[in-house]
Amino acid sequence: MIKTLLTRLEQGNKTSAYPKKPVTLIEEYRGLPEIKQDCADNLVQLCSENCPQDAIDPVAKRVDLGKCVFCGACEQLSEGRFVHFTNNHELGVSDRQQLLVDSAVQRLSILADNRIKKLFGRSLQLRQVSAGGCNACEADVNVLGTPFFDLARFGIQFVASPRHADGMLVTGPVTVNMKTALLKTYEAIPEPKLVIATGACAISGGPFFNSPQSLDGVASLIPVDLFIPGCPPHPLTTLHALLQFLGKI
Amino acid sequence: MVKESLEIKNGVCIPRSAIPHLPAQRFFETLAAVCSRKGKIVQYFAYEESGCCRLLAVLRTDRLIVLECDAPGEFPSLTRHDAKFNLFEREIAEQFGIVPVGHPWLKSVRFHKNDAGKPDVFDQNYQADIPGNYPYYSIQGDNIHEVGVGPVHAGVIEPGHFRFSCIGERVLHLEIQLGYQHRGVEQLLLQTPAKRWPIIIEGIAGDSAMANSICFSRAVEALMAIEPDRGRQQAKCLALELERLCNHIGDLGALSGDVAFLPPASYFGRIRGEFLNMLLLLSGNRFGKGLIRPGSILSGGLREKLGAIQKKCDGLKKEIQHISELLFNAASVLSRFEETGVVSRQCAGELGLVGVAGRASGLNYDVRAAFPTGYYESHPIEPQVQSAGDVYARARVRLEEIMQSLDMIAAMEPDALSGQRKPAVLDGLLPSSFVVALTEGWRGELAHCVLTDETGKLVRYKVKDPSFHNWSGLAQALRGEEISDFPLCNKSFNLSYCGFDL
Q1: Which pTM was predicted?
Q2: CATH 3.90.460.10 for domain B185-501
């Protein structure tokens, strides 16, 4: 018992002061990209051809963050002259179209719906469904429960049954073999309910797009209320998206 | 007289013409003979080229050997005599419609139509949705009941179906059905342009992104005749060991949580995040995605980064030691961990378990020691082996490996590291070549096997995750256990669903 107490003292309180104190991620982190419209056409074309996710529209000079896996290939190829990934982790949106970024000063934000704020603002119980994810999104969602992020202090929790849930947080491209399980879980959640698509796979199929085994995203099956891009999204991205969605920040 | 098998080296490519091509009967006889003498299967799969189907096997004894044959329409199953062949034969049947005659439990692996256009071996309807929807092994009797769990589980975890046959609380038999996360990775690699491959590879199993991309890079570098320099070797080792640390620490935390000892669960959960942040520093991604590519390490300022990482590791080492002492000395924890989920050495050997699960049951095998490449060739490691084969042993192996990885990172010299910002172009693979690349991922032996045709195009890209061997171990571990110990046993193995499903 003494040992338990001593270890507790040694560990102290490690919970992040976010969102009371703003947090800045390290420079290496690839967050919201700045797109430079004045970049030479041929360089943009090169980036588009080499993007493994076909996420770059070379004519509109636009990156689809729903397809993007933030690998940084375009930044490397263009040496930052077309795309430069900033360390801005705020990437969640409710409108899928907002994920098409084409400027250097774009900011992504979620307009908190009053109805959602009223219903779920003080308590949001989520059911997590892994519909074929690679486990990175799942791991970085799980980590929100650990002391540093401590999701529970915001009234948000992951629950063991869809019957207890207000909404569903889905990861993975939705494989053919998970389609029924996903739909059954969705049906089992009582109204009013939410769907959150977390990660590139859940938004567009991610690395597995166009595979015959992939349904290329949750929105192909059910309406989605919140999109959180990334591969995987940084836990702070997910946390920020949830808090903004609930009107807490 | 054709020699029965050819010795090959980890990550070294050879012309396909050098692979011994045996008559089918001798092929199966050799497989059976080698595996009955303690040989183990690294890879065993079918591939098709120009309408012709072949079977290829890579086995390990104290060396790696390869052999192949023309695939017959059906062949005598070896599983009845040697359980190691079980999933491999079923996978061959599922992927190419070749029937292993006499297989004692012929069912699908991942639940999908075969790629060869042949009639389905399992007579299944792929329009129906659920992989778990077929007869499970059932036990008759009063008081016998079945418990089905999944695919959607209570926690934030990957999908899989577990069917327990129980008498009261005691589990008589566990049958595991996976395949829910089958994304068609192997087919995707053959059908997509090379620019997509590194991303697909990193997505096979996100928590093993480093191990998978190291295998991929090694294989492609061999096929492009690129010699990795010492600096890149060291950077790959650093990334792999950080990945091992993240997951082993996370596992110890999860195990603590499962026995309701919350302090170490919380502390290890947080400390895992510290290691993820080291991978973030190295690569810009918490899982290291985007770092390792064939021919390059995409990160700058590696020397400074190593220095920062070493400093952080040094500070965390003492904390990890204190928390582990707390965990491993608590009587309540020991009473849950010890003698729970035992897999005997004999059973582990018969199943061909690898990695942490194998070493916890006394099997002394670690790819880093047996078939070292890169940094491990000059810095050999000692496999951490336990003998009890229970949850305690699997936890203990993890703890020893955590300390070992921390020491390894502490001893790295910054001067050797090198990185750059531009990836090599994935073009011009050597034609008609074969390579197998093995890495000791944190779960165990991961192997990527690549074959190219006469134009240098991919004929087959076969991925074997360590979980492909070890899920059978979990099923065995549950026999005779209380069903309430299932989460604990499951976490003590912590196998990959998506790595298995591909």
Answers
A1: 0.94
A2: no
